[in-house]
Amino acid sequence: MIIETRAYARAGLMGNPSDGFFGKTISISVRNFGASITLYESPELNIEPQPQDTNQFRSLYDLRDAVSTLGYHGGVPLLKAAIKTFVDHCDREGIRLANRNFSIRYNTSIPRQVGLSGSSAIIVAAFRALMTFYNVEIPLPILPNLVLGSEMDELGITAGLQDRVIQCYEGCVYMDFDRSIMDRQGHGEYEPLDPRLLPKLYIAYDTDLGKQSGRVHNDVRARWLKGEEKVVQTLADIADVAQQGRDAIVNNQTHLLHDLINRNFDLRTQIYNISERNLALIRAARACGASASFTGSGGSIIGVYQDDTMLNQLFVELRKLNARVIKPFIN
């Protein structure tokens, strides 16, 4: 029996990055790109490396380019972390796993290091495969916590729950991570929203940009933990953007989302340092008349466009910055 599972890229629509600070967000799954897992029973537990996991390079420059694009470790550590976290969870819950081994491999089409959550997609797909193989049920609201734990606790990756929630739930989800809610039930309040209510959305990602997400969060987190008023208030304002966005969507007032998306990014610039390359993407999209904000921590943007004429203009102008524009497939 061969088990095949999949998880998709995601884009933060509003509220990003307040999810890591007891805030609120709205995210969409982006089915244009995905990570897949193939798992089948075998005599020994075997993790099959992919070409991006190689330690052989043609030259110094080949190594440099590979690390810039793919990071230092590839996908194998993600699979190891997912498997360990899955076993630890089953032990805590008193779930006895069958004495079976497997071979597992991954594949991904998600552009790396541009804020579309390629790493967490691999882990989500791995959890789905493990749950199927061992016939284990993990409640949907709990699964994102385990995915996040695989990254943060096992691999030291700085991240928030938003990406893992939308990749587990899929579609479009409004998330409330209020501290009192998190303390009471151990996870946020997650409300699926009908993607058909959304306006016309585009995503653009920098095909040349290679950076490891997580690094940009460190300074802001330290300042937030110290209670710096500007940081605390700005993140609260960003969370409020998501609340307003949720209300606009359910009340069929999606014309308000254009300004809310722009406000999300403008607030972000008050506490984060934004690279000139990322700012160029935002400026180019807004010059076309579209709204623009980050999908994650940089490298890709999302916004509302008005019509096909504007979309074509986005294609042309963002291509000049080596950025690819897509219409996200959400359902």
TrEMBL record:
GO molecular function: ATP binding; glucuronokinase activity
InterPro entries, alphabetized: GHMP_kinase_C_dom, GHMP_kinase_C_sf, GHMP_kinase_N_dom, Glucuronokinase-like, Ribosomal_Su5_D2-typ_SF
Residue stretches making up the GHMP kinase C-terminal domain: 247-318
Family matches, as Gene3D superfamilies: 3.30.230.120
Keywords: ATP-binding, Kinase, Nucleotide-binding, Transferase
Keyword Nucleotide-binding among record annotations: yes
Coiled coil: none
All residue ranges annotated as the GHMP kinase N-terminal domain in the record: 79-171
Tree of life domain: Bacteria
Family matches, as SUPFAM superfamilies: GHMP Kinase, C-terminal domain, Ribosomal protein S5 domain 2-like
PANTHER family the UniProt entry points to: WITH PUTATIVE URIDYL PYROPHOSPHORYLASE-RELATED
This protein's name: GHMP kinase
Species whose genome carries this gene: Rudanella paleaurantiibacter
Upper taxonomic lineage: Bacteria, Pseudomonadati, Bacteroidota, Cytophagia, Cytophagales
